[in-house]
Write a structure and sequence with these properties.
The chain is an alpha/beta fold. The protein is built from 7 helices and 7 strands. The structure holds NADPH dihydro-nicotinamide-adenine-dinucleotide phosphate (NDP).
Length: about 240
Amino acid sequence: MKPLVAITGASSGIGEATARLFSEAGYPLLLMARRIEKLNALGLPDVVCKKVDVTHADEIRTAVEEAQAKYGPVDCLVNNAGLLYLGEPWNQDLKEWEEMVNINVMGVLNGIHAVLADMMGRKHGTIINISSLAGRKTFGRHAVYCGTKFAVHAMSETIRGEVSQSNVCVITVAPGATNTECVTHTTSELFQKDWWNGIGGILQPADVARAIKFAYEQPQEVCIREIVVTPTKQSD
Ligand code: NDP
């Protein structure tokens, strides 16, 4: 059997598409999200589904231990869970900022912490952190989201260098506009529409999933450090 692939935020969007693609290719999976019913409803074979809030490090660690007991070590972790709230910095609810920081930054760190030392010990493994085009350049109404995704880029690249001699790969995948539930969480309808306007095209979650799988399936000695994948017609 192929090695175990763990995915956070697998209950919708990019995470769900990634789960389906890896499953089709025969990988056993650990799928994590808060909406456990959506994970179970995927009906994929060789899967451990766990109700996990990525802001709780102990929940990720317990899920990893349970899946590893069944399928062996996690060889690939896709740190995908994330949240976008668009807003104006002078009136956006502080709770939205706090939630984005906790999920997009601490959630990624909690995932890394749960698997990195073991991967280094085995001298094998890949961590793929899902950032965003908003982790490479800034956009209006995205201040805190951009901050969290710039952090994902910075942490990924720093850790990549630090673990490189252990033969562990750390990869950042930065998608542009993708057709998922992501934007629906924004509380202002005005900004939901605003986000869609003028982009000219949109990726489907499966487009991003293919990039993730391509990056993972390189030989362990080859590290694709970063992929930025956007709709061709997204000019910004
Ligand atoms: P979705 O909203 O469809 O998916 C987000 C996923 O994250 C869901 O499965 C959700 O599951 C999970 N999630 C959110 N909070 C938590 C939490 N606290 N604990 C565990 N899981 C959590 O959006 P996308 O598929 O678009 O988002 C996936 C990633 O892609 C995110 O990191 C996002 O920032 C990034 N991205 C998206 C872009 C886009 O245009 N859509 C562009 C660039 C990057 P549940 O609610 O069940 O817990």
